[in-house]
């Protein structure tokens, strides 16, 4: 499938946007709190060239790492509108994974005419209350190594690969996963580091857990939507990120994808194929 990157003018600089495929329909995909657009590469492959999948690097991440704050779901939603404008898309299916689900909800709430349908992937509805402690302690408990790596330095790419291969959620390793983690690196050996802004991660974590915009967007949700829930959690633990599916299923259709955890629901099968199918479902457009 054809893959390329473009830049889109946004407030304070340029957003990097990954594009897979060609032509219509153009669907928008939003990544998680410490991820990048390459989190969607396997899903894009499973779409098989059916239109275009557009995935921005949110400000503070990937190629958009240099864009200034403030951050938060409203800011990211406005950036997504800039992407849709640049691509000439008036309304489309929007999907979001993890924090991207919260961005997608706020996008649909603030700009309802731009969103025809939502596919929320293990993110978006309110999360269980965070553990007690400072925001930094909560981030460590919630994200573990994904957050801790932002202050770490790596001698070379192999060291960074090994760091991620030790993560319990990455039960298998693939070329897509390797590209995903390589894209996150910046700097010069032996001082390679993640491109993710620690301040962006912190502000976004506070907003998605305690901000008014995500909670109100969920309460006011009117767009057609589906929630795809990972069977297992952030660290491949048996308890999923969303332990109470009934609370969500009372609002929108929900499917739990067997054999997935919070990461592999995008980065491996069967999750990636199921997400692609939900995006491509012509009966739901």
From TrEMBL:
<dbReference type="InterPro" id="IPR029058">
    <property type="entry name" value="AB_hydrolase_fold"/>
</dbReference>
<dbReference type="GO" id="GO:0016787">
    <property type="term" value="F:hydrolase activity"/>
</dbReference>
<dbReference type="GO" id="GO:0016020">
    <property type="term" value="C:membrane"/>
</dbReference>
<dbReference type="Pfam" id="PF00561">
    <property type="entry name" value="Abhydrolase_1"/>
</dbReference>
<keyword id="KW-0378">Hydrolase</keyword>
<protein>
    <recommendedName>
        <fullName>AB hydrolase-1 domain-containing protein</fullName>
    </recommendedName>
</protein>
<dbReference type="InterPro" id="IPR050266">
    <property type="entry name" value="AB_hydrolase_sf"/>
</dbReference>
<dbReference type="InterPro" id="IPR000073">
    <property type="entry name" value="AB_hydrolase_1"/>
</dbReference>
<feature type="domain" description="AB hydrolase-1">
    <location>
        <begin position="30"/>
        <end position="160"/>
    </location>
</feature>
